[in-house]
Specification:
The complex is a heterotrimer of chains A (276), B (399) and C (639). With 276 residues, chain A is of the alpha/beta class. Chain A has 2 domains: 190 residues, HUPs (Rossmann fold); 53 residues, no CATH class. Helix content of chain A is 32%, strand content 26%. Chain A is built from 8 helices and 14 strands. The C terminus of chain A is likely disordered. Chain C is α/β, with parallel strands linked by helices and 639 residues long. Chain C has 27 helices and 10 strands. In chain C, strand 5, helix 21 and strand 6 form a beta-alpha-beta unit. Classes of the chains: A alpha/beta (276), B alpha/beta (399), C alpha/beta (639). Chains in contact: A-B, A-C, B-C. Chains A and B meet through helix 4, strand 7, strand 9, strand 10 and strand 13 of A and helix 1, helix 3, helix 4, helix 7 and strand 5 of B. Chain B: This is Electron transfer flavoprotein alpha subunit apoprotein.
Chain lengths: 276, 399, 639
């Protein structure tokens, strides 16, 4: 088996409570995936790239995951990283491009990996939580909502976006962070004209959206006033177990959760595949 | 069987009232929000609920919309008796690309259609690109483009993106809306953006009165005019009720699509027990009031729920530590939380703030969990759990 | 006669023993360099032995007696042999003195034998230790016969004398063989360990030296990976272990059958000093749930993994019960943290939620991940003055992580009201207060600890205050004992100490307790780490509550299981530590278990079933003050 050239794109994250810079959890998971993959195939290289300020202290945390070297395309914040990244990556011609699924700063449209995959002629697989490479054939496990998993096969060269997942991220090793090198390359700084047109306001929690009702809303209101409401806040005192169980199952049915519906979902998805 | 989210009876009633005497006042209104928030006539509704033959007026609200056990409802033809709103040549189109990830229209799809409808206003029309579903007419779609055979599989992202691209080129919509799901609508939107050189605005979470869209960026909200291509943040918009529309079939243009490079191998079987708590959708959770853990396991298995527990239960080693819900355990966002014998300590309730539906079984009427729940059963969990398991299995066996 | 021969044989044996012992020093001399005041240590050594070691040993009078007889007898007899070896000094009465000494030693040896063979405590190790009584008996008995025979003349005396010499020499040979790598090496290593102890300050006039030693973050290897990475005097300590098992008896993790036996842990470290080490020869209790015989290692090989499992390392609650009980003055917790430092800083290998929480701590400066900005959210209505507004206050109230815990907030609330009631002028850092770094440091994350310490000290240096009062013994310990190494020196007082002082001054007016029976649980970081066991008790007594003591209390109290990040690493055991502690509390029949630490509160409140109510001392006091006030108001009212 020949070694792989694995490029990982790393961005700066933002802690949700304090707003402080941190590793982007998705990117950190992508890096962990890349390092684990490189360890299984001898001769593989992990080429980590960040576009931004090489002096950002948080970059050391990525090194702390066991990365020896991180290349930084030096550009001021707010620049469009695409042209420089494209140029850099074309020169590297990687077999595999791994990135986090979402950025935590800036526009965070998640578009960059798609644009790079397009430019590099790579097949893109989103939402990858597991990957198994045999030669140039890859089998990917995708995380679907509600804990479902789908398997996808595709050939190298590939780009994969990776979600952080729910397991905690590896803690960066202080010693490895100290040992790793940051290599800064001058890069083209092209300001993003689009961002200028955006009006920025301080973020505030939006109220939970209420649906606009056409009909039946008056009835609902009346019912809640007369206590005859049965959907929200229903209470059964000392029912016999059968009644209680039936009520619970009915409610689960309304929510669409009892297993029967799960199974039909599963079969439908596979049906779709067989039709294809 | 998966059940459509909208109750057909509710929709029928809605239409009846609309057609019933009060003439199409709404259709003349210029402002659609005003239309949607218009108050109904309570007298009419009251009349409908009136039980005939009683000496004193008695009302049975079960006779009308949005109530009653769905199982008791006979299947209703969703095609309305009255006329749908017809849009022939609107000023512009809004294309809503639906995921239908459960095979039917779900909450996310309805939210997406609601946003599309609001962006379309009175002058625009909504094209839904979806799996054919009769409910679409009641969900706000003027036109319905059905995925071609190559793009029926939700995993066929390349074919789906090519389909959207072809449709965009032929219909030329002003806005294209996709879900934000990174392995479904979000993926398609990004593929389209990369192929067609469109700017993508993702995770849109608000729509201002002046028609601009907003989304969160760190501790800021970014506002801008509604772009050509956007993904909609789930849960940020409610699924509005919609007036009946045509959902007239729309012929797809020829699609330029080479061979798929992604091959779907299929879904992996998922054992709910193996799911991390913050990923699972349905949790059955045991507290101090559960003593029979065999029955608990059996009930959870029968329901297909992931097992979890309060701190007390995990401390006692009855469930592993990673199954602990609460501030000091896992903060969960499941759609439904079945709390068995859990009183609801503040730390525990902190762990389920993100849960949509809570069902509580507890012997104490005054437990905090009972206040939090939308279905509360004051009973001993030991009695309810076996009944629940039995009944769930019975219902599964029945077709 | 054998009068001339015997001393020479003994001295020859002794000399060979000393040579062998010197050869043994290479075991621990392979350790890393350490700065030790050797001469001072050697001078101080007898004092340390007679005072500090005696204090520990005297907790078990029977052991103290047999040790004094056997060891004292052996040493005294050896001294006499030296005298007897010089022909001009060989007075006949000296044989009588020797006989007396050996007779006393024989009593001790019999005692040792009884302890080993008749009523053997389960915590003792076997192996070489079980051969010890025989060697002592042969030595003492044989040479006693010889010494007595030397007092007489005649063929019978000669016969007995020769018999005694043969038997005694066998015994002495046994003793020396047991001193080379065997149990009696503790005699030499123990003495040298006392002299070159890594914490000489703990022997100075009743002082406690419990703060961890700062790690130089610029050093090439962070923490301890291999035995040779430990300082040589630490290795000396491990090698001095007598496997008496006192640590095993008091270790909360061992009691809960988590995979940690502190005795085995120290033995693992000591055994790994020989190349190709394995734990085959170890003859005591192992780490619960782990079979003996599988551990292997060597002086230059990594310890964690092959020699010691990581679960063992992360089971420790850093409660210092083992250190407090160790008659050889071994510092188990220091070793534990040294090993953790390597795991955390070099390998970033932490179990359970520890990594997640440390990451949050690094990014938010709070363990809860909510950020210091939210530290006063619970106290909006209390309007606690902020230091950055008042700039100076007599008392700086350090809130700690308790400010983020719903249960612990009740304690803080009671404390704030008490301070108000007593007219104490105080302020808090509020959003400027960062986590003190205790958990990070115990988990080996010295980098985060030093970062937090540095920034907290910088903040504190901006304000003027007389003392810091805190309700969290962990913060107390860190601020008081560990910040000085980074340039912060404060008078830090625990809230129980502070409140006890206020009560003495009678500032709270009439106190009316509810009369329930109460038992007090000493937090490790208040008691063993800081020696404060009296003030909370004085406070409870001042309330007029009936106070009963648990089986283990004061400096020998048992941990709640929450220290050292143990709740985060969460290593499973057969039982839970707080359950064990709560059982001890329930046994006293007390209705209330008084606590003085937010961690203990949370751990003990997590115990299910019928149990005493868990209340902080401050809460009990506030209740009494409130009731007292009401009662006074009622009695003051006209009838």
């Amino acid at each position: 088996m020949t070694g792989l050239a694995i490029v990982v794109l790393l961005s700066l994250g933002r802690h949700p409570a304090t707003g402080r810079p941190r590793r982007n959890p998705d990117d950190a998971r992508a890096l962990a995936t890349a390092l684990a993959l490189a360890a299984t195939r001898s001769g593989s290289r992990v080429l980590a790239v960040h576009a931004g300020d090489p002096r950002a202290p948080v970059l050391r945390d990525y090194l702390g995951q066991g990365l020896d070297e991180l290349t930084v395309l030096d550009m001021p914040s707010g620049s469009d990283p695409l042209p420089s990244l494209r140029e850099h990556l074309v020169a590297l011609s990687p077999d595999l491009l791994l990135t986090g699924q979402r950025a935590e700063n800036g526009e965070a449209s998640g578009l960059l990996p798609y644009l790079l995959a397009e430019a590099l002629g790579m097949t893109l697989v989103p939402g990858v939580v597991g990957l198994d490479l045999q030669g140039d054939q890859g089998r990917f496990t995708q995380a679907l909502p509600r804990g479902r998993r789908r398997q996808i096969e595709a050939r190298l060269p590939l780009a994969a976006t990776i979600p952080a997942g729910t397991a905690g991220l590896p803690l960066p090793s202080f010693a490895a962070a100290r040992r790793g090198r940051i290599v800064s390359l001058p890069a083209l700084a092209s300001p993003d004209p689009h961002l200028v047109a955006i009006e920025r306001q301080p973020w505030r929690q939006l109220p939970r959206p209420q649906p606009r009702r056409l009909k039946g809303s008056a009835i609902d209101r009346l019912k809640s006033m007369t206590g005859g409401g049965e959907a929200k806040g229903r209470l059964l005192v000392d029912p016999d177990p059968e009644t209680a169980a039936a009520q619970i199952l009915d409610r689960l049915g309304e929510i669409g959760l009892i297993r029967a519906s799960h199974q039909s979902v599963t079969s439908r998805d596979t049906d779709g595949r067989t039709e294809r | 069987m998966s059940r459509p989210r909208l109750d057909p009876r509710a929709l029928r009633l809605a239409r009846q009232v609309e057609g019933g005497g009060k003439r199409p006042r709404f259709a003349l209104k210029a402002d659609p929000p005003a239309l949607h928030s218009r108050r109904r006539d309570p007298r009419l509704l009251r009349m409908r609920a009136l039980v005939p033959g009683a000496r004193r007026p008695r009302y049975d609200w079960k006779r009308d919309a949005a109530s009653g056990a769905p199982s008791a409802v006979p299947a209703v033809d969703p095609v309305p008796a009255n006329e749908p709103i017809r849009v022939e040549s609107p000023a512009f189109w809004v294309l809503a690309v639906l995921d239908q990830s459960t095979g039917a229209l779900d909450e996310t799809d309805l939210q997406l259609l609601s946003v599309a409808r609001r962006l379309a206003g009175d002058e625009g029309g909504v094209v839904a690109l979806a799996l054919a579903d009769p409910v679409l007419a009641t969900a706000g779609a003027d036109r319905l483009a059905v995925w071609p055979a190559s793009a029926v599989d939700p995993a066929a992202a390349e074919a789906r993106a090519a389909t959207v691209q072809a449709l965009v080129e032929s219909v030329k919509p002003r806005h294209v809306l996709c879900s934000d799901d990174p392995v479904a609508g979000g993926d398609i939107a990004r593929r389209l953006a990369a192929k067609a050189g469109l700017r993508l605005v993702s995770a849109v979470n608000s729509l201002t009165a002046d028609g601009r869209i907003g989304r969160r960026a760190g501790d800021e909200t970014w506002l801008q005019p509604a772009p050509a291509l956007m993904t909609i943040m789930p849960g940020s918009f409610a699924a509005d009720e919609q007036a009946l529309r045509e959902a007239r079939p729309l012929e797809l243009p020829p699609i330029a699509f080479e061979a798929a490079r992604l091959a779907n191998i299929g879904l992996l079987p998922v054992d709910p027990e193996s799911l991390p708590l913050d990923e699972t959708d349905f949790i059955a959770s045991a507290g101090n009031g559960v003593t029979d853990f065999a029955a608990f396991a059996e009930a959870a298995a029968a329901l297909g729920a992931t097992r979890a527990g309060s701190r007390v239960v995990c401390d006692a080693g009855l469930l592993p530590r990673d199954r602990q819900v609460g501030a000091s355990g896992t903060v969960v966002t499941a759609r439904c939380y079945l709390a068995l014998g859990i009183a609801g300590a503040p730390q525990h309730l902190q762990g389920i703030t993100g849960v949509r539906h809570v069902i509580a079984v507890n012997t104490d009427l005054h437990a905090e969990m009972i206040k939090r729940a939308d279905l509360s059963i004051i009973a001993d969990a030991q009695a309810v759990m076996p009944a629940l398991a039995r009944l769930a299995r019975q219902r599964q066996e029945k077709p | 006669m054998l009068a001339g021969l015997a001393p020479l044989i003994v001295l020859a044996c002794l000399l060979s023993g000393l040579v062998a012992a010197a050869w043994q020093t290479r075991r621990w001399l392979q350790g890393a360099p350490a700065r030790v005041a050797r001469l001072q240590g050697l001078i101080a050594m007898p004092g340390r032995y007679l005072v500090d070691v005696h204090q520990v040993v005297a907790r078990r009078p029977r052991n103290a007696r047999f040790h004094a007889l056997a060891a004292g007898g052996l040493l005294a007899s050896l001294a006499l042999w030296c005298v007897l070896a010089v022909p001009p000094l060989r007075y006949r009465p000296l044989w009588g003195v020797l006989a007396l000494v050996l007779a006393l030693m024989l009593m001790g040896a019999i005692s040792v034998w009884r302890r080993r063979q008749v009523d053997r405590p389960v915590e003792l190790s076997g192996g070489g230790f079980d051969r010890l009584p025989l060697a002592l008996l042969l030595y003492a008995g044989g040479f006693l016969v010889l010494a007595l025979a030397e007092l007489f003349t005649g063929p019978a005396a000669t016969l007995f004398s020769s018999l005694g010499l043969i038997v005694g020499t066998f015994g002495l040979a046994g003793i020396i063989s047991l001193a080379i790598g065997g149990p009696l090496k503790h005699a030499i290593n123990g003495m040298l360990h006392l002299a070159f102890h890594p914490r000489p300050a703990r022997f100075v006039g009743g002082k406690r030296d419990t703060g961890l030693v700062p790690l130089d973050l610029a050093s090439a290897r962070l923490g301890v990976e291999r035995p040779v990475d430990f300082a040589w005097n630490r290795l000396l300590g491990f090698d001095a272990c007598v496997q008496c098992g006192r640590c095993e008896q008091v270790c909360p993790a061992y009691a809960a059958e988590q995979p940690l036996n502190p005795k085995k842990f120290i033995q693992d470290l000591a055994m790994a000093l020989a190349p190709g080490a394995s734990d085959d020869a170890y003859a005591g209790h192992g780490h619960p749930g782990q079979a003996l015989g599988s551990a292997h290692g060597g002086p230059g090989e990594p310890l964690i993994g092959a020699m010691i499992s990581d679960a063992t390392l992360w089971s420790c609650t850093t409660c210092r019960a083992c250190v407090h009980e160790c008659p050889m003055m071994i510092e188990h917790v220091d070793a534990m943290v040294d090993l953790r430092r390597f795991q955390t800083l070099e390998l970033a290998a932490l179990p359970g939620k520890a990594a997640l929480v440390l990451e949050d701590l690094r990014l938010t400066d709070t363990l809860s991940g909510r950020g210091p900005g939210a530290r006063l959210d619970w106290a909006v209505d209390l309007r606690i003055p902020l230091m950055r507004e008042v700039m100076e206050a007599p008392v700086l109230l350090w809130l700690g992580e308790a400010a983020f815990d719903l249960r612990a907030q009740r304690t803080l609330r009671a404390l704030v009201r008490l301070l108000r009631q007593a007219g104490v002028v105080f302020a808090t850092l509020g959003p400027e207060e960062l986590d003190c770094g205790d958990t990070a440091r115990r988990l080996g994350d010295e980098a985060t600890f030093q970062d937090l310490a540095g920034r907290n000290i910088a903040t504190l240096s901006r304000y003027r205050f007389d003392r810091i009062v805190t309700a969290d013994p962990h913060s107390l310990h860190v601020l008081k004992n560990e910040y000085p190494a980074f340039g912060g020196g404060y008078e830090v007082v625990h809230h129980t100490t502070f409140l006890a002082g206020l009560i003495e001054r009678g500032v709270f007016g009439p106190l009316s307790p509810d009369g329930r029976k109460v038992t007090y649980h000493d937090p490790c970081y208040l008691g063993r780490y800081n020696g404060e066991t009296a003030a909370p008790r004085a406070l409870l007594d001042a309330l007029g509550l009936e106070r009963v003591e648990m089986e283990r209390s004061g400096l020998r109290s048992q941990c709640c299981g929450g220290g050292g990040g143990a709740t985060l690493t969460d290593i499973p055991g057969k039982r839970r530590i707080p359950d064990i502690r709560m059982a001890q509390a329930t046994e006293t029949g007390a209705a209330v278990i008084a606590v003085a630490c937010p961690t203990c509160t949370v751990m003990l409140e997590g115990v299910t079933g019928k149990r005493p109510e868990v209340l902080d001392v401050a809460e009990l006091l506030w209740q009494a003050v409130e009731r007292g006030g009401i009662a006074a108001a009622r009695s003051g009212m006209p009838a």
